[in-house]
Amino acid sequence: MPTPHTTESPSVDRRTFLAGLSGAVAGGAVASQFQTTARAQATASPAANAIAYIVDGMGQTQISAARYLNAYKTAPERFPLNVSPAETPTGFDAFSSRGSMTTFPDDPYETTTDSAAAATAFASGVKTYNGAIGGVQTSGGGFQRVDTVLERASAQGYATGLITTTEATHATPAAFAAHVEDRGNQTEIARQYIEETQPDVILGGQRRDFEADASNGGTLVDAARDNGYTIAETAAELDAVDDPPVLGLFSQESHLDYYLDRKNDPENTQPNLDAMVDAGVDLLSSAGDPDKGFFLLVESGRVDHAGHANYPAQVAEQYEATQVAGQLVEYAETTAEPTFLVSTGDHECGGLTLGRDSPYEVEYDVLAAQKATTSRLRDLLAGVRSADELESIVAAHTGITALTDREVAKLRDAPGSISTILAERAGIAFTTDGHTGTDVPVFAHGPNAARFDAARDNTAVADALAAALGVSL
Q1: Which of 52, 139, 282, 347 has a CA 20 to 30 Å removed from the CA of 202?
Q2: Binding residues
């Protein structure tokens, strides 16, 4: 739906900024070619559906790590000679177009983006400061809302959806369907979802945000029910939903569990990302104007969290994200309606390296054997003093069958040091517990995907999504 605007102007106009950037490219011929290509792409023919798939924290190294892990799991006897995309393709190899993307924010203090500024660029095509959701700082220091592609699509009769493995109100989904000065105001984000934007599908974590008071009394969960939403809290309940709208909240607090912990804990009731995607596209296909399609934002959000924590399980989290990339391409290719799909990372997180010191080796058998993240292992190991018991727990969840005396001592003192032990055993390392400013890969498939066979800025995602659906920003 349309969003209100203040009378003040943003501090940086995106069109002006990009024009200046083009003019600064060395060589007039290069700049001219870039501008000609951009004009040609502005005439993109609409698709019926548009899907944005954001893997939070994904850089090229994460993609490479998942490629190697996939090849090892597929045919360990052939590894590493089977890593070639021709022999063991991954989900991202299925995209028809690929390029690179810059990620910087419009922030007076930081040149490396956070997820809020990046997602606002993806959703609205504008640069903003770190922490801003769906808006920019005005020249007078105020906050100005900016329309999002989800809101524009909804106003034109498209069904809309948000799917994430993070809190439902976390930065990436929020930037498509809410407007707040500070990403931390998550109860206000939840209120805007339910009372204003009203996507047809909302799937994620942290029910707590939706237990806040609604404007007309009761909680936001109550208001959602009054607005016709089915509430789902488990994978089984989501599977039973036949019609939109649906509000799926699969944790009381915080995010969905990491992939390994969801997959390998028989008592875990949360859906995996592939199941949420299946449900989302099925439900959206029957929602909205019958003459229109849908817009869907999908986020694999915990690659970022594993990077911040320096968890070796970041590789497994990326493995799930890569599988879902292939699932989305398959949907785009098999559905009767033309579907535009774009996927990228909002930034890289953790500075993952494949290899540490020498020898030049990564032990993918260690990564493949891991069945639980540090998050779960830390709880299992807490308070355990016996070396035999420590070894038993570690072996059951990581495949490491013998610990050194040094490793036993570390685990007794700090159970979370299992991350360091696994990283050392696997031969991987992290250079930071924060984001890095490197360019990230971008992939596209479907109508006019070739616009991403080049170097682009992250604002190009919004332009492409809007063009695909025939809406303006």
Answers
A1: 347
A2: 45, 47, 56, 158, 172, 282, 285, 291, 299, 304, 308, 346-347, 358, 361, 363, 433, 435
60: nearest Cα among 88, 98, 89: 98
Structural domains in the chain plus CATH codes? 47-353+430-467 (3.40.720.10), 362-424 (1.10.60.40)
Q: Which of 439, 470, 473 is nearest to 456 (CA)?
A: 439
Q: Which residues are known binding-site members for Zn(2+)?
A: 56, 304, 308, 346-347, 435
Residues 42-83: tens digit of each pLDDT: 445 689 999 999 999 999 999 999 999 999 999 999 999 999
User: How much is the pTM?
Assistant: 0.90
Residues 52-63: tens digit of each pLDDT? 999 999 999 999
* Cα–Cα dist 265/120, whole Å: 35
d(CA 274, CA 279): 9
